[in-house]
Queue: 2 jobs
Job 1
Amino acid sequence: MNQTLTDIDADLDADPTSEVAPHPRTRPALVAALSAPQGFGDQTLRSPRPDAIELLGGIPDPSVLPASELAEATTRVLSRPGSPALQYSRAEGLPQLREWIAAREGVAPERILITNGGFHGLSLAVQAVVERGDLVAVDNPVFPLFLRGLQLSAARTLPIPVGPQGLDVARLAEELRGGARPSALYTVPDFHNPAQSVLPEAERRELVRLAERYGFVVIADNPYRELRFSGEQVTTAPFYESDHVIEVGTFTKTLGPGLRLGWVVLPERFRDDVIALRSRADGHSSTLVQAIVAELVTGDPGLFDRVLNRARALYRDRATVLANALESAAPGAFDIEDPEGGLFLWPRLRDERIDPERLAEDASATGVEYQRGSFFPSGPGTDADRHLRLSYGDNDADRLREAAARLGRAIAAQPR
Amino acid sequence: MNQTLTDIDADLDADPTSEVAPHPRTRPALVAALSAPQGFGDQTLRSPRPDAIELLGGIPDPSVLPASELAEATTRVLSRPGSPALQYSRAEGLPQLREWIAAREGVAPERILITNGGFHGLSLAVQAVVERGDLVAVDNPVFPLFLRGLQLSAARTLPIPVGPQGLDVARLAEELRGGARPSALYTVPDFHNPAQSVLPEAERRELVRLAERYGFVVIADNPYRELRFSGEQVTTAPFYESDHVIEVGTFTKTLGPGLRLGWVVLPERFRDDVIALRSRADGHSSTLVQAIVAELVTGDPGLFDRVLNRARALYRDRATVLANALESAAPGAFDIEDPEGGLFLWPRLRDERIDPERLAEDASATGVEYQRGSFFPSGPGTDADRHLRLSYGDNDADRLREAAARLGRAIAAQPR
């Protein structure tokens, strides 16, 4: 027989302190495994001066984001009868956007799934591929937020060195021959974050061959690929030809992080699982944002490349300005490789007597903020801590020169 | 000593068939637990006629979504210097949007976290609260997609009846006194999906009291709350006053599902975990969409209520039209409660001789599609299978009358 609410009240009121054993509330293991930011992304490490110049993030410059063109595309999209851009759509993404990306990438449209930006693609790939507790091979040094994403699967990591030629595929092969059996490998093949390097075509093919032989999935994180401003593009064909690679792309660095729009190029065998995961989260990416970007890139077929060319020219200039300014502000202090694309410089301190941690603090005191190299190792055996990650994306030439001058003063003042 | 790529090639080529035990690729348990849609949402069940009238989803009518106002807001937002709407923002959401929602809901802005729509809020709540394998109390009948979302936590379910007065809180109390210890309870307090009912204030208070006493978290899913078109709003204050309730809100039914924008009202104790989860997925909701909606609702302070009033008037008319048309097309066939809000009618077939499954098939053949009641039970003891869930959101009065006429013909043709 059902109790009435009055009965329950009586029950509780009669003995409000009666002992009931409540549910033993503990944090679910999933969230308990998610650590607070340490190092990279830890705001508590920073106390920037009010006039600080920040070379911190891979942030595209507002001047090369097509704001007015996006506004115009929005007006066109929202004037369509029945406003389909305001309605539900499919987990896979809008067909016209998937088709445009597929044509650009040279893959079948069915393999494109739209995401809320690059990191979202990584997160879906990890959840679709990595069993809890699995071993995952990762870049060393590595984009630190990927390691934080891996906490979703409580994965163990196997660091693989990244050098001037990108991931050390031969070293990975040694590890595999030695018995390591990762379920996935994470790398940034183009304009590595933080190490600047690009993985050559032969190594891409070899990496795929190893993945197929040893049964792991390559998660190729490629946010900067379209921002090559010198040298020749290295093909992604080896990745697209294999069902052992998930390539993660995004409009973040080209049209703006605030859109939260990206995609994955997915082997068919993962498609249903990623869609199933998506349908347990937010269902699909904003129909409106997808429709705006689809209208932007298809409404004027040359526009996206014009946006890219403008951005590439800007970042090439800024990379050159920053590299030159560093050399003149602190002659001989750094080994500097000229980047061929992307948004980061990864100079190496030459003088072993300089403590890079102290330098970062002193640089902050002179008004320049950057990511210390020590935030990036995924294991031992890298000299990442001797490097600085300097972003030149969203500061103009004058500010980059001023930042270099401040850094130069901090270096000059280091004890040695 | 590092191998070169040539060495690896030689190695593989020399013995291409050599036995290596690859990683034993299996689907991660997380994704293996995600079932394909069955019943609700299973497109394979449907073979609609080309001229079918679909009363399937809780879809807002395009005529009451503020498309042109959103376009104007976008133009204003994207003309701001530096285009902040195209840049990264914080996991919590844009301050101006959080503040506006907080003021409207009467809670502190810190408790508002922006999501990609209501379902995303449910997904985050489940992951933050429910340990794998936990017991979760749920509405019976229930919004079926919530059960699919629960698969993320492989939870067991405890069905609690929902009647004309919403969730049967007294029955829940019995289960708890009997020893059931759910970690969470899921319910739709306003304009229940599918059962139309509204949970009275006293039951809301009692539910919260039980949650606090027995240590579970109420996940209150409230997408339809703003669409009340008759009767008095029931307060959400009991939910907001407790740290044992996560209330899930959304702009989906008011400004458009395609935005993918919603929020959760979160007790402080869950805040860091939800932010940590978010930072492992897509980081934050689209800055652009947030900025557009913030501009829409704050740029013209009366606009949102005007949008709501237009929508409420439309849905009130449509609910009335559909209820009346059903009664005249099939006199006496249904018990019909007039809804006070939301987008669904949940009529009950009176004649026990009518097989509702066969009726749904015959209705489809006459050109009307709806969700059969049998898709909604979360356990035994409900007569949901005798009901039909009819959405009146996105069909005009003429089409609703035609749909009712077709359904009437299907009913008339049933054997009895």
Note: The first helix of chain B runs from residue 5 to 14.
Job 2
Amino acid sequence: MILELADIRIHPGQNAAFDAAIVHGVRDVISLSKGFQGFKINQGIENPERYVLQIFWETLENHTVDFRQSEAFTQWRAIVGPFFATAPVVEHFELLAKSD
Amino acid sequence: MILELADIRIHPGQNAAFDAAIVHGVRDVISLSKGFQGFKINQGIENPERYVLQIFWETLENHTVDFRQSEAFTQWRAIVGPFFATAPVVEHFELLAKSD
């Protein structure tokens, strides 16, 4: 399993609307994609305009190819893109260790 | 529950030693701290020298006060600090939503 971490910064003052938009986008668009295995959306305490979206994919290509080259990616960006203050920083990770 | 996200960059070529050190430091030092509830250690695919450490704390102060002002913090930094290429970027997050 692969972890996608998307580091997102939104425009100030739009938290309530963005909260609804990102949950809608993940639940109704991304979660239907091939290889999707789960998600977490975290909101910053020190920086409330910072969100870290975690998406768990079966393989790296499920995100980088299957999702990003699909119509779903366009739908997702139409939902959340208007809130972005800067381009999200997205990288992928493997799990090295975790608590039991 | 609060998520601490520590974004870590290590010197190149030290992955195997750092993997062992960070697991040791979390399991044998941080996990004994008040309010510790769990952890994940993720290693970057695009940037193998990047690690994202997730620590789950009962409260924000369990990390920022109880842990950081304890001897355990000094022990932890002695274990992992020598590997750091830059100062880790650490912030805290609340869970907005997650998959079932």
Note: Chain A has one domain: 2-93.
